[in-house]
Amino acid sequence: MAEVATPCEESSAGGGDGRSNRFLVVAYGIQGHLNPARSLARRLAGIDGVAAVLSVPLFAHRRMFPSDSGEGIVSDGVISYAPFSDGLDDGSWPTGSEEDKARRRRASVESLSAVVRRLADAGTPVTCAVCTLNMPAVVEVARAHALPLGVYWIQPATVLVAYYHFFHGHADAILATAEPAAHEPTLTLPGLSRALRARDMPSFFFTGDDSADELSKMILQGFRELFELMDDKEETPCMMLVNTLEALEETALRAIRPYLGDDVFAVGAPVLAGAGEEEPAGTGGETIHLFAQEEGKRYMTWLDAQPVKSVVYVSSGSLLTYSARQAEELLLGLERLGRPYLWVVRRDGRSPELERLLHVAAEEGAGMVVEWCEQKAVLAHPSVACFVTHCGWSSTLETMALGVPAVAAPSWSDQPMNAHLLAEEWGVGVRAERDADGVLTGDELARCVEQVLSDGKTAANASAWKEKARQAMAADGPSERSLRSFVRRVQELSGMNL
């Protein structure tokens, strides 16, 4: 796998670099956290007087920079990289047990504290720590070193509203929406405009204490700790940066600010505005890919040969994998459509049975199956007609910003609420229904794609939102102004007069 940049040793050791604000941006070592965090770090570094250091777990750092040992601090010429150990240096997944959680937290706190000390010893002290979502270890480090903390909420503001109210008196009402009833129960959360069903809520809400899903319980507990921190900012000043646009979620942002105060900043999500266009201000450079792409990107040549607005693009992101039955159903649906398709199936999720199905598809199908691809470039291609998506927030933002109608097929976490936003709030797609076994059937896939492509209103909505996103992400647009306001707030908290 190619490196995201050619790293060089940090040259400022011992002498400082003349920049008074240094942000330590810490992210989990998974694709959906790395790219928003790196983009934010690079955008911060583009502000006068600001430097940024991205710190990710050692295993992810080594995948980003295969030639780097991970023992020091390196730079790509825009930001620096300082990995930390989260106790899972071999890339294994956490077990969710209390013992494992405590061990990983200790390792992360010790390692990140060492990064902070190393930067201070080099004459380049950290003035603010930023972490993606719920990272309790970063909270501990910020407190220990008396640093302001920025939480980078890399999910929609609507999800932020839902979590806030779940932990502030509305949990029972939210859980009641999942109870059997003659008519599907709904709930309208304070400040939001639409009623929500259980199927529209973040999946972790419905992880009970008796659940065997230890990972989900651990994640929900992490969110609980985060909101306890937000409730008590006396010990650690805490700000919320939301990876959304004011134009996209004005209602949700207005709904959360009375509870979290003025320290809520919609810092946007810059992505490519379209094929052949320059990236908007502060996009953060090239995307980090933890999965190998086909050499030469043959899929782009294949897309060039397809008719305009003909291709169905299918991807379930960097975490979810397909069962053999799910893959078979998707192939049946794609064959029924009779359209060219580009389908991403990662190598790490391919069972022998799935490999057999994919081989048949390659021999007989009308599409192309790839292990990974440059998604923004694919969505910006004129041959792509619609996106069958798992509704991860990054993918949701990209399909919005690039004006591609979507078929929403969510599974867990924030994805159900993202699907609700795509289909019902913004009207840029339809939500697919899964069967009793959680499988998206071929018939349902074909029905949804045909509905999206035959509905002129959906295409019109997608084009309208693309233009709104382009304006919001412009140089000195609302997103960049909000990011600068965040920096000024950190300066105030640090007692600086810059």
Automatic annotation (TrEMBL):
It comes from Brachypodium distachyon (Purple false brome). This is Glycosyltransferase. CDD domains: GT1_Gtf-like. Its EC number is 2.4.1.-. Keywords: Glycosyltransferase, Transferase. Belongs to the UDP-glycosyltransferase family. Transmembrane segments: none annotated. One of its GO terms (molecular function) is UDP-glucosyltransferase activity. Pfam families: UDPGT (PF00201).
